[in-house]
Amino acid sequence: MNLAIRNGHLVDPKTGLDRPGDLFVSQGKIIAVGAEPPGFRAEKTIDAAGLIVAPGLIDLSARPAPLASDLAAAVAGGVTTLVSPPDMEPTLDEPERVQRLTRQANDLELARLLPLGALTRGLAGERLSEMNRLAAASCVAFSQGKSPLPDTRTLLSAFEYAATFGFPVWLQPQDECLSRDGVAHDGEVAARLGLIGIPVSAETVALSTLITLAADTGVRLHLCCVSSAAGMEMVKEARARGLPITCDASIHHLHFSERAIGFFNADARFNPPLRSERDRDAIRKGAAAGEAALSSDHTPQKQDDKQLPFGSARPGATGLELLLSLTLRWASEENLPLPKALAAVTSRAADILGREDLGHLGIGARADLCLFKADDAWTVAPDTLVSENKSTPFQGQTLLGRTRFTLVDGKVVFAAA
Amino acid sequence: MPDAPLPPQNHTPQLDARGALAHLLCIEGLPRETLTRILDTASSFLGLADREVKKVPLLRGKSVFNLFFENSTRTRTTFEIAAKRLSADVINLDISRSSTAKGETLLDTIDNLCAMHADMFVVRHADSGAPFLIAEHLRRMGYDDIHVVNAGDGRHAHPTQALLDMYTIRHFKQDFSSLTVTIVGDILHSRVARSDIAALSALGAGEIRVVAPQTLLPRAVASLGGASCGARVFHDLRKGLADADVVIMLRLQNERMNGALLPSAREYFQHYGLTPEKLALAKSDAIVMHPGPMNRGVEIASEVADGQQAVILNQVTFGIAVRMAVMSMLAGR
Q1: CA A5 from chain center: how many Å?
Q2: Contact at CB, B127 and A311, closer than 8 angstroms
Q3: Would you kindly state where each structural domain of chain B is located, as residue ranges?
Q4: For B98-153, how does the pLDDT look when each residue is reduced to its tens digit (9 = 90+)?
């Protein structure tokens, strides 16, 4: 099908394009930007007057559950691709499970779902998973999700094996022993509230191990959810040495510090924990400097799992529908040009995935698009969120930026009412 | 860059819209006037124990539920005595052995007790923040006339203990502003220490010191007590005791004595146990306090515990008056 998107304001983070223009799509791909190709006959036209036309967002960490409501939430939030860690229910450590998940996701015809396979069987950190069989079942990389892999000998083997076949490994840097029993950043708020702390060293000790082993094995390493200034600095230093290492940070660590916990607000419980204001500022700077991509780390929790004393409440929050608005808020607070800010959730994420067909508006790219009105205000509330589980520390806040159309492979998968 | 606007739970949830005390959850956030009023009210109850009839009718017809999710016969008993002296009906629920064992959630338990027309919950819980969860739930459910008293939550707070400690200090020392108060022991795991520091800070104590090995201190210990009146940290008990007016010894839990935090009770006593010889470094009229129960020979030598400067039993007596004051201010007509 031929589709014309007219009168919009095009933003392509990859090239820095930031100007009014039309976009032409044929057979699911972008075929022209600006001037209409000769002989093009649009079967469908979207009037994008007043809208930003950008690549669809790529969320590097989202656990969609339940699948249908969260993939609907994704496209309502302008997210066209989401990467799902293996610590879902069921664990993605068998090809059949991965196939079932991707089949269900494909049948919904909403967002593109890229699964991460379990690095070890059952995420137990003991035996390697069948990476080649999982890759054949569409896993794009291998991960432990938020499960630890404390045995460094097994970790080394996993890196060696993954490197052999060129599989990337995605890990959250968190030392198992130093974070044991911890529920909050080991800082002022934990001291005041009597919560068991997770020191920054839980992240930096793990990073030191991971970076050392990555350098030794040559594995392509992506570090998920970096939370501290010291951690960001270590990643930056490793990248400067030319190691094939990338990282992301979550929108929660981008906007909140430990102070969001207030008096035991369980919605502000995260893994890794929200850290100090200094750490948050370093995350903001790292993302602005292009060192880190941004993810929603969408980990929806049921109300019952949050209505518990802080230390017993489950960490995580809904985020897919907030990724766009919170990226825009960060851009406006830091005075970042739109292409530069959106790069953190589009082209940079595509680079991390090694997908040249995603995350940009170049000719030949997949027509995964997000058309949004940048100054549309909306309030985060149970009835404005599509996702079934509504827990988020942003509840009640007014944000800017609302998706009007979302396209995947040139097909409209979401149109605002 | 300012934090994104804070969620509503950042407001001190224990004061109602008019600034009156609706619950007693922690000391933090309570104005000095409120603390002073509680201590003054306690003072008026203190003479009651010497009378033939020890009761006043302030809580007549009210039901006070003691919800002890964690065992503590001692604290529960002092709350029970306080409530009974106010003429309340007291119901003791030993929940650690009943509902939760059957899988009922904390808030399910609370809903059931609300349906039994409770007027007050006295809550002891092993998890920091549990009484806040209950108070927030009551607010959401519209039970504005049910009050929560925190009788100790995890490592977080033990506000009535702090108030009775403040009462004791005021009784013996009057003015807080000139005092050096030294708190010794396991600060990391101590709800008493956190509440004492908050109370001393609110009441304007001259200097607050904490003494412990680094393994028993929270990393951000210096931030306790707020920016204006932070705690001074000492690792050497002798230095921490120098010229102190008040010495508060903390209990060292058995399970912490031999492990990754401390090598042995013997070594702990050698460095952090209060002996007459070390106490002599404090002011000659210094008082020695302990929230009990004491481990003699671990954190405190018997000669000190039974000595002239110890006011540990006074604390117990004052504790009942302070708890009466809190309960009557929350639910009294």
Answers
A1: 27
A2: yes
A3: 8-158+317-331, 160-315
A4: 656 566 788 999 999 999 999 999 999 999 999 999 999 999 999 999 999 999 99
